[in-house]
Design brief:
The complex is a heterodimer of chains A (263) and B (119).
Chain A (H helix, E strand, L loop, with lengths): L16 E6 L2 E5 L5 E5 L5 E11 L1 H13 L7 E4 L18 E2 L3 E7 L8 E6 L5 E7 L6 E9 L4 E8 L4 E8 L4 E8 L7 E7 L4 E10 L16 E7 L7 E4 L2 E11 L1
Antiparallel strand pairs in A: 1-4, 2-3, 4-18, 5-16, 6-9, 7-8, 8-15, 9-14, 10-13, 10-15, 11-12, 11-14, 16-18, 17-18
Chain B lengths: L16 E6 L2 E5 L5 E5 L5 E11 L1 H14 L6 E4 L6 E7 L3 E8 L2 E10 L3
The chains are: A mainly beta (263), B mainly beta (119).
């Protein structure tokens, strides 16, 4: 499966970036001026407009290579939302998108860093390490940043990890009762096309967690709550059959790319 | 009934804000020059164009989630007129698209159109 390439910075886009979501509604007007509407609930689309500048010939070449590979608008590729959270259900760890080990107990509606009740308490009631994780059908070798707020009322620790079938990055964090946002850059040397992000607790450990986020870039940006749709779009396409590039100087190219995907 | 979400400041709009009020009148002109006029809707229809600048990811997330929940222009919600605080019960998004431009970290902008539904 082809992938929309990352820039050398590890990001997919630059500022300014635009994201547009589209729905479809059928409208019928009756003779007396009333309007009736029907939602086309299955039709949802998202479009990004990326203005890329200062590209090297290698960066431009990767983009042009993808454009040729998918033959403009014809073929599909995987696109990682550059302005969204790649994980689904970031505040609902009970959902099926999250894979939980059997002895991991989850309590919802716990007080979060902003004083609302959107965090979750995780407790390992077993005698071996237990984890909660979410897998993404995304390149394991891309640059990612995983971030999450953690605290533990009793001094404790948790392991934040990114794993593929052949490579892994793990960091064990010592925690206290103060909320801290942990951000871990991840870039694995592998060729796997599936990567899992999650938290692991040792036997008897309990932590409170909020706002787990994964982004395809080197650093964490502001937290974005996600719902049923994560930020990995496996059926994305170019919106146009033409890809134009401007050479602004030696080894300096610029272009505007529009990408569309079904929601 | 759902209520249109407010920004962190507690308001729904920023300057410049545009509000329009419209009627739909059909005019029939006869050969002798006289006219017959009648209305094609039950009352005035209000429309607000909200230009939002410097909104952050959380504010945008709330707006996008609300747009999703309303299924674009299909759903109906309560909108409080930012000009005078009057609440209008039956309003919808003016279109099926919602676009956000991110100019930098926590520096997003969008234009949202809200319309009062015709009854």
């Amino acid at each position: 499966m082809p992938y929309f390439p990352q820039l050398q910075s590890g990001a997919t886009s630059q500022f300014p970036a635009r994201r547009k979501i589209q729905k479809r509604t059928v409208r019928v007007e009756s003779p007396e001026g009333r309007e009736w509407k029907a939602a086309d609930g299955l039709w949802r689309r998202v479009e990004w407009r990326l203005e890329l500048g200062g590209l090297t010939s290698a960066e431009w070449g990767a983009l042009e290579g993808l454009f040729h590979e998918v033959e403009g608008r014809r073929g599909a590729f995987t696109f990682l939302d550059p302005v969204g959270n790649l994980l689904a259900w970031s505040e609902e760890p009970e959902r099926e998108a999250w894979r939980k080990d059997p002895y991991l107990e989850i309590t919802g509606e716990v007080e979060d860093p902003w004083g609302t009740r959107r965090a979750a308490r995780l407790r390992n009631a077993g005698s071996v390490p237990q984890k909660i994780e979410q897998g993404l059908a995304a390149p394991g070798w891309f640059q990612y940043c995983m971030s999450v707020w953690l605290r533990s009322e009793a001094a404790g620790e948790a392991t934040v990890f990114a794993r593929t079938g052949t490579a892994a990055k793990e960091e064990t964090i010592r925690l206290d009762g103060v909320w801290r946002r942990i951000a871990i850059p991840v870039k694995l040397a592998c060729e796997d096309e599936f990567i899992r992000f999650g938290l692991e607790l040792g036997p008897g450990r309990a932590v409170e967690a909020f706002g787990m986020q994964v982004e395809a870039q080197g650093g964490a940006s502001k937290y974005k709550k996600s719902g049923s749709r994560g930020g990995v779009y496996e059926e994305a396409r170019f919106a146009e059959d033409i890809l134009a590039v401007r050479a602004e100087g030696p080894e300096c190219y610029a272009c505007t790319v529009r990408v569309v995907a079904r929601w | 009934m759902n209520e249109y979400p407010k920004l962190r400041t507690g308001t729904a709009a920023q300057y410049p804000a545009v509000k329009t009020v419209g009627y739909r009148t059909e005019v029939l002109r006869f050969v002798d020059g006289s006219e017959q006029r009648y209305r094609e809707s039950g009352g005035p229809v209000r429309r607000w164009e909200l230009r939002l600048d410097l909104i952050d990811e959380e504010e945008w997330g709330r707006l996008e989630e609300f747009f999703e929940g309303e299924q674009g222009s299909f759903g109906s919600f309560r909108f409080e007129d930012p000009w005078d605080g009057t609440g209008y019960e039956d309003c919808s998004f003016g279109g099926d698209e919602l676009e956000w431009e991110l100019e930098g970290e926590s520096r997003g902008g969008a234009v949202v159109v809200v319309e009062q539904n015709r009854t």
